[in-house]
């Protein structure tokens, strides 16, 4: 029997190569490679329409977009954030000389628990940076209420939340800014890429200057900006990806449904999900492995690995376990009991458009009867 190909937690979606050629020919013809060229402008407009947002600034990746978002709102001092995320969330603060203050998550959503935020606010607090983990919406209303009461800015790390809607409204419209990632591993990829979503033209102009060294025109520089611009190749690829995204999301939804049906009723294996009013993007398929399961979480992780199925423990370790964070008082496990449990129990199963029905069933069978 032919050996099955290894299965990773995700595989980047790539449209047929031939469809990309005309875009490349256009770039080779007009010789505009970057600096807000025609594809860059078209992609910003197309994404605003697709996502249902007012203003969007493209970036070369999500991390530079997070760093620039903090600069754009002149955030200083302390920012309240989650330990249950990818390290870029809090790294963007350290690069800005900001101190992250970690608070615990709500185990139902894996997102910052609004009830924990208030106690972490000090006179130095200037902002909250929550993450819509797995694309599951944060409690945006409760977070905004706290921000309004204490005059804090809210910047969402929405790297997982491309296309997610709540009651028909884009999740990216909440807070002061939202930041997307278009990295190869994300639902919508431009190889590398990212974006900031903002609400007014003045902020968009400030962000556009900050991502281009602070230039206003040929001779005027108004801020110590960075180079965060998306190239024309990435922008052109994004335009092509947009033509395929609905179909890709539909396939993800079908896989999500198959997993939910197949994994129901297994002792000790819990399948979380987003609240009912959410239009999901099915970016991840997290499960939680409790003590009643036949194996430990790492036991299942290893059993799948034996079959060359590479599930991932997102997010283990917690950000607060890394050396540049662990000495902060807020990083102590006693402060983060729910995040600590989630990190110990979570396993993200493979989900991507090209994952076959047979492979989904094989993964379900292994979870039912791990060997
Ligand atoms: C992917 C990711 C980022 C970083 O985005 P890049 O485009 O890879 O720089 C930031 N935060 C979260 C939660 C992510 O998953």
From TrEMBL:
Task: Read off the Gene3D superfamilies from this record.
Answer: Type I PLP-dependent aspartate aminotransferase-like (Major domain)
Per UniProt, what is one GO molecular function of this protein?
transaminase activity
Q: Does the keyword Transferase apply?
A: yes
Q: Which SUPFAM superfamilies match?
A: PLP-dependent transferases
Keyword presence, Lyase: no
Sorted keywords for this record are: Aminotransferase, Pyridoxal phosphate, Transferase
Which InterPro entries does the record associate with it?
DegT/StrS_aminotransferase, PyrdxlP-dep_Trfase, PyrdxlP-dep_Trfase_major
Q: Which family does it belong to?
A: Belongs to the DegT/DnrJ/EryC1 family.
Q: What is this protein called?
A: DegT/DnrJ/EryC1/StrS family aminotransferase
Give the source species.
Answer: Duganella qianjiadongensis
